[in-house]
Write a structure and sequence with these properties.
mainly alpha, single chain, about 40 residues
C-alpha cells in the first residue's frame, strides 16, 4: 500500500474517532441534564 494512502486512512480514522468520542460525551451530558431536571 502506498504511504500516502496510509496517511489519508490514518487521518480519516482519527477524525471518525474524534467525532464518535464527541458524540458520546454530548449524549452523556444530555442524559445528566435530563436526570438533573427530572429530579428537581
Amino acid at each position: 500500500m502506498h504511504p500516502i494512502y496510509m496517511l489519508v486512512l490514518l487521518i480519516l480514522l482519527l477524525g471518525l474517532s474524534a467525532f464518535f468520542s464527541g458524540s458520546e460525551t454530548a449524549l452523556m451530558a444530555i442524559s445528566r441534564l435530563r436526570l438533573r431536571y427530572r429530579w428537581s
